[in-house]
Amino acid sequence: MYPHQTERLTAVLDREGVEALVASAPENIAYLTGFRSLSQFIYRRTPLFAVFSRRGTALVVPAIEVAAAISAGAEAAHILPYGDFFLDFDVAASDVGGRVREAMKRRATSASDALAQALDALDVRRGQIGLDDEYLTFDIWHRAGERLAPMKVVSAGSYFTEARRVKGPWELECLERALHIAEEALNEVVQALRPGMTEREALTLYDKELLERGAAPYATIIAFGDRSGIPAPYPSDRALKPKEIVRLEVGAMFKGYCADVARTAVLGEAGDRHDRLHRAVQSGVEAAIDAVTTGVRAEKIFETAVAAVRANGLAEYRRHHVGHGIGLEPYEPPLLAPDDDTELEAGMVLRVEAPYYLIGWGGLNLMETVLVMRKGARVMNRSARGLVLLD
C-alpha cells in the first residue's frame, strides 16, 4: 500500500473513532491490498474482506482464491482462507506453493470466522469496527456482526469513499495512462470509420486496439445517426452513412483504474445544426473546466456548465449532472449536480461532460478528465475537443 492510501485510511480511523476498516466491495479491497478476485467477479455473493488497522493489513478470501492472492503478491501481512477447496502440492513446490500450503492449514470454516482471525492477528479485539456495507448481503453483514461481538460493527461504505476520493501519485499515473490509451485506441477507430462500417465493427476495433495497449474495455458506446440520440445503446449492425453523426463514448481500465473519453464526429461535411449543437456542448464543458478549483462546490460546476450551454445555442438545455469523480470505479463521488454541496479538494479527478440527446436525430457528447489543483484544474486529455470531421 502506498503512503497516500495509508495516510487517507488512518485519517478515517482517527476521525471516526474506529479500530479497523473492513472492505468488502472489490474496489475497496483493491484499494487496500491491490488484489481483485475472479471468484467475486463471477459470483457476486462470494464474501471477501480486506482489513486495515494501525498495525497492518489482512485479506480474507475463499479457499479457491488463496493461491491467486499469494501469487499475485496481495499487499497484506496476513492472508486467511475459509471454506472447503481441494488442492494438491508437488513435492518440489515453490515458495508460493509453500505459503499456500501453510495458509490452507489455517483455513476457517466461514468468512466471518476468518474475519475474526484476521482482526485478532492485527491485535484488534475491542472497540468499533467499520465494515464496508457497499457489497454485502444482509445475511453476511448480520453474521459478521454477531461473530465479532462484543466489538461493535458500524457501517463504513462512506468511509472508503471518503478515503478514495483524493488520488495519490501512483493512482494519478494509472488514471492518466488509462485515459491516454483510450484516446489512442479511439483515434484508430476515427481513422478507420467509413461508410458501411457497422457500430459493432467499430467497437470491435476499439476493443482490439485497447487490449494491444494493455488496457481492458468497459461500457463502450459507438452509435451512428439517429441511434446516437439513444443515451445508452448496445452496439448494433447499423451501418454508417454519409453526413451522419457519430457519438463516441469509450471506456478503458488500466491496473484497475478507469478512464472515459467522449467525442462527436460527422461523416463528411458538418451542417449548421451539427456545428451549433456541438459549439453549445463544448462551451458547457469548457466553462465547467474553467470553474474547477479547490474549495468550489460541485453544484457550482453544474450551474456554470448548464448556463454556458444555454448561452451558446441550446436555451432549453437540461441535465441532471455534468460529470462526477472517476477512479477505481467509473462513477465516483462527487456528483457535479444541483444538490451536491461537496467542496472540491486538490487531488480529486473529475469526468466533466455536457451530453445532448435529440431522439430521432442524434446525440452529441464531449468528456474531459480533469485533476483538481490548489488553483484551477489540469486537463488530463491530450486529444482535441472539436467536432471531428470524417473523410
Descriptive overview:
With 391 residues, the chain is α+β, with helices and mostly antiparallel strands. It has two domains: 3-164, Creatine Amidinohydrolase, Chain A, domain 1 (3-Layer(aba) Sandwich), CATH 3.40.350.10; 169-390, Creatine Amidinohydrolase, CATH 3.90.230. Helix content is 37%, strand content 22%. It has twelve helices and 18 strands. It has helices spanning 3-16, 26-33, 38-42, 66-71, 95-105, 111-121, 138-148, 157-164, 169-192, 199-212, 272-291, 298-311; strands at 20-23, 49-53, 56-62, 78-82, 128-131, 152-155, 216-217, 221-224, 245-254, 257-267, 323-325, 332-335, 349-353, 356-358, 362-364, 367-372, 377-379, 388-390. The strands form four sheets. The protein has a six-stranded mixed sheet, with helices on both faces. Strands 7, 8, 9, 10 and 18 form a five-stranded mixed sheet that branches. A five-stranded antiparallel sheet has the order 12-11-13-16-17. Helix 9 packs across helix 10 (199-212) and helix 11 packs antiparallel against helix 12. The mean pLDDT is 96.
